[in-house]
Amino acid sequence: MDNTLYLSSSPHIHSGETTERIMRLVIYALLPAAAVSLYFFGLPALKTLLICTLGCIAFEALANKLMKQPLTVKDGSGALTGILLALNMPASSAWWLSLLGAAVAILIGKMIYGGLGYNPFNPALVARVVLLISFPVQMTSWTAPAPLTTGIDAVTAATPLGEMKMSVMLTGKLPENLNSGMLDYFTGNMAGCLGEVSAIALLAGGLFLIYKKVITWHIPVSFIGTTLGVGAIFWLVDASKYPNPLFHLLTGGLILGAFFMATDMVTSPVTYQGMLIFGFGCGLLTILIRLFGGYPEGVSFAILLMNAATPLIDRYCRPKIYGQVEKA
Amino acid sequence: MDVKTFAGGLHPPDSKEYAKDKVIERCPLPDELVIPAAQHIGAPAEICVAAGDLVKKGQVIATAKGFVSVPIHASTSGEVIAVEPRLHPMGKLLPAVVIKPDGEDQWDESLQQQDPDQLDADALKKLIGQAGIVGMGGATFPAHVKLSPPEGKKIDTLILNGVECEPYLTADHRMMLEESERIIDGIKIVRKVLGLETAIIGIEINKPDAIEKLAKECAPHNIKVQPLKVQYPQGAEKQLIDACTGRQVPTGGLPMDCGVVVQNVGTCAAISDAIRLGRPLVERVATVTGPGIRNPKNLLIAVGTPLKHMLDQCDGLDGKPAKIIMGGPMMGQTQLSLDVPAIRGTSGLLIFREQDLPRKNAGPCIRCGRCISVCPIHLQPTTIAAYARLDRVDEAESYNALDCIECGCCTYICPATLPLVQSIRHIKGGIMAKRRKI
Amino acid sequence: MLAAVLSLGGIGLVAATALGIAAKKFAVEVDPRELEILDVLPGANCGACGYPGCSGFAKGVAEGKAAPNLCTPGGIETLEGIARILGIEAAAVEPKVAVVACQGDNAKARVKYKYLGLTDCNAAQKIADGPKNCPAGCLGLGSCEMACPFGAIEMTSENLAVINRDKCTGCEKCVAVCPRQVIKMTPRKSTTHVLCNSTDKGAKIRSYCDIGCIGCHICKKTVPEAYAVETFLAKVDYEHDEEAALAIEKCPTKCIRDFSSGYPEGSSFAPPRNDAA
């Protein structure tokens, strides 16, 4: 008998789709947003981006070594976590803050559960929330955008959402100039995290992912749709107290969250029906935190809370199987 | 054109260019035919010849054992040189009749030609059973059993499977182009047996020539040709029924539970031969194809022809074979050796070389949900496979593991290259074992 | 400040009272012996006794439904413990240990094909009866290692299952999962075993394995009372365990092995002793 033959169970061909390819495409999709952040925030942004990404890769390799696992950094998920984390940090973050974030994301957010595929929460968001709660001052020291072309030194400023929250808390009214900056919000000319600034760059990346079939429309559409819908209801009730839905869409991390964080496959439901419920929950929690919570921004908390609900959603949202017809 | 399909599935590269334009060629007889007694679903036939016997082509060499079984016939005239266990496509040594052809290829004189119009349904059914006709798409379910719905089951539609959704294979395609008369004649016989009018031939639109030809020739006979979108696994019974009629087979049921009988087009041609010429199923068309073959062909082979002999007709191997697959690449079975014989269900022989194989180590599931979106039964393969790995039989059962048709879509698409179907197959065995115990 | 302390203290007091009442009111009557028995059980929840977990077994024993000697992993200590708690005389079962009756690893046994797919012996066995030419040898994909609740089975670098006799408790989980029944339960005191499971003829075995039993009868000729050879496979009669050791040196294929100091010393299969202390 010819013992050089391979035998296996069918099928004998494969689509060629790989985890590495999926991670690579998501990283590509984030590049426009990263580029815009570099344009507006300059070298500090580059520093944060590099420390977070390289830090995540290094910590994953370290964890592999400690856990006596084969090296898993090649799958690209560590690098992706790093980039997502950087996009969730203020541009002026100190190096140690970025590095700490990378450690939390990879070690506590991912490897402690066994690595890729087993983490219940989005690692980048775990790190962001840990940093936000532990270092509130550093994590909310936003720099006003200083495009490379202007050459002005960075000054600190508040995010549009932060301004809104402050104003509502102090005066019970929205700030007057709220709606004047829509175009700036759209292109990214506002204070904020690296990655939450440019709506257009994020949208381009998100649509690229849907076009490439890396993600489906379900989570982004239901997430953003719910946020806008509920936001619109409040705005219609009292436009002097609640901002219009467009403001919700273009400021803060909504687009980044909806297209890149909530769609993290490991921590979101696997069925279409489940994804819609997941997106709805994210949207509802986001808008409630933004309007009534203590923090100006609620996307991270909303996604993490829904991550926790994912196993439950998966349990109850099963597709209707073929032939499950009314049995006679 | 009204093109239909089903929900789920995917579209792998169909790779039919290797052999789709190759006219069916008759494969010369080999030096030795190895005819196993087990070639169909159901009880294996019982061998009724011994070494030294002289047999004629079409003579019964193994008799049917029970209703869900069919007899096996000699594929040529010659001498039985051995009755012994031989390597079977299943990968085991199983009883087989070895015949040395005498070169005359003489049909058994007792075989009678019949006019189907003169026979009633029961007589036709009996003849089909005696001729050893089985589903020739690869499932090899005895045809006469499918044509015998139990009392009270109303069958109103006959669907003919001309889909050939497996990549690489082109045997059915060539049959439809070259043997359309026999196919149509067989359809008419099956229609008579079932006592119904509606007959639909489902063909995917990557075979426009076959659709055109059959549509033209079927029109006078009130047979409808239904063009279908190219989507795997449309040739699976359940998916084909859904695509053609919009009906669904209830879970755990059979096509007849929704009023449908499905037959392969090749089976229909064999049924026509069985009645009109009195010839049992002793030969079939198989595609010899794949990147490992010099000159891919569609061959008309005698049942029992060793794979090696089929290869020789196609100018042999191009490089060193790494995988020998009987059937298509999605559901075919890998073989231990080229000495294995082709049997009634062998729709193709596919050879892959080392460089043609997908080789990647499985990684962890990243819960991307692709397996769920492609599953034609709308199961959750990754969840079932996870339970399978833990041998959690009850949970796997509650996720409807038994409804899996093992089409392989989930494994094909999985970015972590997990062997999902294999896991599910494994736990299905566990569920069946548990049911037997209770 | 005072208000805070008082209100917190008040809440604590109310909650504690409520809990206390609930504990009394909804207390479930548990046979105290059940808990005592649970204490002496190993707590591995391996299921070798046939009951769902150790607590299920403890309940069964306390209610008199389960025989007290069913816990093989616990061995004699557990049995004595249970006997003491119940105040009965319990007959000890002979302690057993699992032995992999095969030495045909990747280096010594040849394969009929290269297997791709699920790392599971039962799944591989379904494909043309397993990748090894030998119909009865260890497939080396580690299903027993996965099934062992005590971490007593290790796969060697050449893919052969070997059992750590110190950790093996005789629960038979591995025996149940092995598709080729190559793992045998043997009396713990017996230290001489024939490590082959194939009933093929000698010539055939030689064609695919360097270390299988070829049924040459030399062991039986050396120590007639300790060996039996059936279907070309030698078996040790464990009644004559000590005499059986005399044939170890005589076996031409080295498939009779001495386990008196754990796994055969000098064997290339001996598991790495990382907990050598």
Describe the SSE topology.
The complex is a heterotrimer of chains A (about 325), B (about 450) and C (about 280).
Chain A: E1 6-8, H1 19-41, H2 43-66, H3 77-87, H4 95-108, H5 123-134, H6 136-139, H7 160-171, H8 182-187, H9 199-211, H10 218-237, H11 245-250, H12 254-261, H13 272-292, H14 299-316
Chain B: E1 25-26, E2 33-36, E3 46-47, E4 54-55, E5 60-63, E6 72-73, E7 78-87, E8 93-101, H1 121-130, H2 143-146, E9 157-161, H3 171-178, H4 180-194, E10 198-204, H5 208-218, E11 224-228, H6 237-245, E12 260-264, H7 265-277, E13 283-289, E14 297-302, H8 307-313, E15 321-326, E16 333-334, E17 348-353, H9 370-374, H10 381-389, H11 393-398, H12 409-413, H13 420-437
Parallel strand pairs in B: 1-14, 9-10, 9-12, 10-11, 13-17
Antiparallel strand pairs in B: 2-8, 3-5, 4-7, 5-6, 7-8, 13-14, 15-16, 15-17
Chain C: H1 2-25, H2 32-40, H3 53-62, H4 75-86, E1 96-100, E2 114-116, H5 121-125, H6 143-147, E3 153-155, E4 161-163, H7 173-177, E5 183-187, E6 192-194, H8 202-208, H9 218-222, E7 227-230, E8 233-236, H10 241-244, E9 256-258
Antiparallel strand pairs in C: 1-5, 3-4, 6-9, 7-8
Helix pairs in contact in C: 2-3, 2-4
Subunit structure (chain B): The complex is composed of six subunits: RnfA, RnfB, RnfC, RnfD, RnfE and RnfG.
Cofactor (chain B): [4Fe-4S] cluster
Pfam family, one (chain B): RnfC_N
Architecture overview:
The complex is a heterotrimer of chains A (about 325), B (about 450) and C (about 280). Chain A has about 325 residues and is mainly α. Chain A has 2 domains: about 20-140, no CATH class; about 160-315, no CATH class. Chain A contains 14 helices and 1 strand, in the order βαααααααααααααα. Chain A has helices at about 20-40, 45-65, 75-85, 95-110, 125-135, 135-140, 160-170, 180-185, 200-210, 220-235, 245-250, 255-260, 270-290, 300-315, and one strand spanning about 5-10. In chain A, α2 runs antiparallel to α3 (about 75-85) and α3 packs across α4 (about 95-110). Chain A starts with 5 loop residues before the first strand and ends in a 12-residue tail after the last helix. Chain B has about 450 residues and is α/β, with parallel strands linked by helices. Chain B folds into 2 domains: about 1-25 and about 115-360, NADH-ubiquinone oxidoreductase 51kDa subunit (Rossmann fold); about 370-435, no CATH class. Chain B has 13 helices and 17 strands. The N and C termini of chain B lie far apart (about 50 Å). The mean pLDDT of chain B is about 95. In chain C, the strands form 4 sheets. In chain C, strands 1-5 form a two-stranded antiparallel sheet. In chain C, strands 3-4 form a two-stranded antiparallel sheet. The radius of gyration of chain C is 25 Å and the shape is elongated. Residues about 275 of chain C have low confidence and may be disordered. Classes of the chains: A mainly alpha (about 325), B alpha/beta (about 450), C alpha+beta (about 280). Chains in contact: A-B, A-C, B-C. The interface of A and C includes residues 3, 6, 8 and 9 of A. β1 (about 5-10) of chain A pairs parallel with β2 of chain C, so a sheet runs across the interface.
